[in-house]
Structure formats: structure tokens, C-alpha cells
């Protein structure tokens, strides 16, 4: 089945993990044997080859670079200008992959439809389509930089990532959006960007809902009712997204799928984390909505973790093809499953991308 993945940090892996994503997953793993600088070395799950084999022909691919103020203990860049420059290096990688014929940027409805038709007819030679998103807005030095990003093809943006940010507060922090956040939201609306509410802390989320009326989604988020952590969305937040005709991409980071996960201690096997929990989250959102129209896949695979923090029955991103059967067992119809695996996000883009 064709799969739309709403969140992949492809350029981060290429530029910061120094992975040639044109290589097969096993080749990348072999190249990282003995490396200990990151906990997921030799345990990656994503490559362009694996995406193609898994019929993941379209994704939302990110730029990401955090600016951290002096009192912020999180890793990141010391100025927004440096963070901006980092995102530009990531953009250069995407452009180079377009030159090699491996990727194709999607910025409007016409390109989207043409890509889907071409992929269906020949998914061997067709480049993998990607739509550009910015995860965390701290690299936006000023609002004129957001317009620059739009001109470069940016079509979605999340105001915050982890911790306190310039425009909003994110995961594991508490605070509102302030005047800068409100100004950013106004510019997002003017440009016609998609607002990604993933990572917004509760206060920033609800303040955003008070002032923003444009299109929104949550590219990679799970349900707080299943794992009680501020990174997840409460049922009330999920209902708000549904009311606004948004879509939520269910994520595969194991700590978001198992209560009381301890990093470096808990394993997917010890916590019994499998793709079944992805189906649990999908089903929970569908039960809240009363339909299948508001949920999809936002795997976040290789988003700073590998198989050590992924479902134990997933070796590579190709294994997303196991999800339809899990949904079928739960009584979802073939039409329902196709909506979840690709159509909800694709239809959202058909509605909100420029002509």
C-alpha cells in the first residue's frame, strides 16, 4: 500500500549523522560499527532505498536547528543566525538529492497530483516526493526569514520543539506564545503555511488555538490517554485538532508508546513495544473522531533514535507495511486503512497547498 509519512528528519540524518541515505540501511549500519557518539549508531531504520521498498513515495521532510539562549541546557546553536545557516545547509542537501534524481520537492497542488500519478505508474524510477517543513521556528531570525523560507518551498512549520523557544514553549517546558509568537502565527496565516502544532506545550497550544484560524496538523504526535506525558496530546487537544479539520500523524518513538520508559534502560522488548501500540494510538484518535478522517502516519523514524527505541517488530521503515494488517484485524475496512495510510494527509494537502 502507498504510504504518506508526515515526519522524517532526512536532512538531519544526512548532515549531522553523516549518513548517505542513498545507501541501503544495512550498509549504513555497517559503516557505523564501533561508533559511540550517538546511541543509535548502527541502528538506523531509514534510507531512501528502504522508503522505496516500503512504497513510501511521499513524506514531509524537515529542517531542524534549535537556537538555545545561555540559560537553556538543551543542545543547540548559540544564535538564531547560526541556526538559520544550519537549516540552509540542510536545504542544500535536499536540493542536491533533487539533482541526483532521488528526491522531488512538492510545493503546490499541481506538483502533488503529478507526483502521485507518476509514482503509481512507476515507483522504481520516480523520485521520492517530499514537502518541506521546519521543526521548531527558532531559526527564523525575523519574520522576513519566514518569507524567504516560503520562497524556498517551505510549506509547514512548528513554532516550538523541546524547551522554551523564541516564539512558543515546547515539550518539557511551560509558557505561552507572547507577542513574537502571535506575530509568527499571523505571518504563517498570511503566507498560507500549514501550522504544525506538534511539540507545543499545553499553554502555548491553547493560546495558539485562541488566535490562529488557519490550517493545522500534528505531524507526529501520540495520545496522552495511553502514555501520560506532556509530549503527547490530551483527548481535549485531539478534539480541538479534529474540530479544525486537522490530521494527526502517529509516531513510532518507543518512549511515547510505553509508560515509564527509562532512556538507556528500557528496551522495546522489555516494554513489549510493537507496532500494535501504533494501532492503539490510531484507534484511539478514530474513536474520539468517530471516523477515520483525522489520523495518519508520522513515524519520526531516525529522529534521534534507532532500533533501540523503535517497536521491536520494526527493522526498517519498510515495516510500516505491517500496519494495514494490524488495522484490518481490528475491523478497519480496506477503504478506512487507505485513508489512514495516505489519503487523509494527501487530501489535506490537496485542500491547503497553493495552486
How many discrete domains? 1
Average of pLDDT: 97
Q: Sketch the topology as an H/E string, one letter per element.
A: EHHHEHEHEHEHEHEHEHEHH
Look at the structure and name the CATH superfamily. Metal-dependent hydrolases
Supply the number of helical segments.
Answer: 12
**Into which percent range does the helicity of residues fall?**
25-40%
Q: Distance between termini?
A: 27 Å
Strand percentage lies at 5-15%
Counting helices, strands and paired strands, the structural category is: alpha/beta
CATH architecture: Alpha-Beta Barrel
Describe it.
It is a single chain. With 355 residues, this protein is of the alpha/beta class. The protein has one domain (4-352): Metal-dependent hydrolases (TIM Barrel, Alpha-Beta Barrel). Helices cover 38% and strands 11% of the residues. The strands form two sheets. Strands 1, 2, 3, 4, 5, 6 and 7 form a seven-stranded parallel beta sheet that branches. A two-stranded parallel ribbon has the order 8-9. The longest helix has 20 residues, at 80-99. The chain is globular, with a radius of gyration of 19 Å.
Which short descriptors sum up this protein?
355 residues, two-stranded parallel ribbon, globular, alpha/beta, 9 strands
Give the secondary structure arrangement, pairings included.
Layout lengths: L3 E5 L1 H6 L9 H7 L16 H6 L4 E6 L16 H20 L3 E3 L3 H13 L6 E8 L7 H9 L2 E5 L19 H14 L2 E3 L5 H10 L4 E2 L17 H9 L4 E3 L24 H15 L5 E3 L25 H7 L4 H19 L3
Parallel strand pairs: 1-2, 2-4, 3-4, 4-5, 5-6, 6-7, 8-9
Amino acid at each position: 500500500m502507498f504510504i504518506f509519512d508526515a515526519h522524517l528528519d532526512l536532512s538531519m540524518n544526512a548532515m549531522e549523522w553523516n549518513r548517505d541515505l542513498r545507501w541501503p540501511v544495512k550498509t549504513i549500519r555497517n559503516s557505523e560499527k564501533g561508533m559511540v557518539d550517538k546511541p543509535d549508531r548502527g541502528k538506523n531504520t531509514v534510507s531512501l532505498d528502504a522508503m522505496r521498498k516500503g512504497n513510501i513515495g511521499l513524506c514531509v521532510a524537515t529542517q531542524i536547528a534549535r537556537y538555545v539562549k545561555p540559560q537553556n541546557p538543551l543542545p543547540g546553536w548559540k544564535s538564531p543566525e547560526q541556526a538559520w545557516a544550519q537549516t540552509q545547509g540542510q536545504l542544500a542537501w535536499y536540493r542536491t538529492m533533487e539533482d541526483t534524481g532521488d528526491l522531488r520537492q512538492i510545493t503546490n497542488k499541481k506538483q502533488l497530483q503529478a507526483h502521485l500519478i507518476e509514482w503509481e505508474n512507476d515507483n522504481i524510477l520516480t523520485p521520492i516526493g517530499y514537502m518541506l517543513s521546519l521543526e521548531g521556528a527558532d531559526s527564523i531570525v525575523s519574520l522576513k526569514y519566514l518569507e524567504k523560507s516560503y520562497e524556498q518551498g517551505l510549506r509547514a512549520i512548528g513554532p516550538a520543539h523541546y524547551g522554551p523557544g523564541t516564539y512558543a514553549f515546547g515539550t518539557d517546558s511551560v509558557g505561552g506564545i507572547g507577542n513574537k509568537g502571535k506575530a509568527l502565527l499571523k505571518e504563517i496565516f498570511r503566507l498560507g503555511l500549514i501550522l504544525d502544532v506538534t511539540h507545543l506545550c499545553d499553554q502555548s497550544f491553547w493560546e495558539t488555538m485562541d488566535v490562529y484560524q488557519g490550517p493545522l496538523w500534528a505531524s507526529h504526535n501520540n495520545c496522552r490517554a495511553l502514555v501520560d506525558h506532556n509530549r503527547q496530546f490530551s483527548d481535549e487537544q485531539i478534539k480541538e485538532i479534529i474540530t479544525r479539520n486537522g490530521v494527526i500523524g502517529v509516531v513510532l518513538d518507543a518512549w511515547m508508546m510505553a509508560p515509564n520508559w527509562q532512556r538507556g534502560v528500557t528496551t522495546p522488548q522489555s516494554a513489549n513495544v510493537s507496532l500494535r501500540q501504533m494501532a492503539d494510538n490510531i484507534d484511539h484518535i478514530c474513536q474520539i473522531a468517530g471516523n477515520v478522517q483525522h489520523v495518519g502516519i508520522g513515524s519520526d523514524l531516525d529522529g534521534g533514535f534507532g532500533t533501540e527505541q523503535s517497536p521491536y517488530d520494526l527493522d526498517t521503515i519498510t515495516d510500516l507495511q505491517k500496519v494495514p494488517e494490524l488495522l484490518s484485524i481490528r475491523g478497519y475496512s480496506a477503504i478506512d486503512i487507505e485513508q489512514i495510510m495516505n489519503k487523509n494527509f494527501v487530501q489535506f494537502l490537496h485542500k491547503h497547498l497553493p495552486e
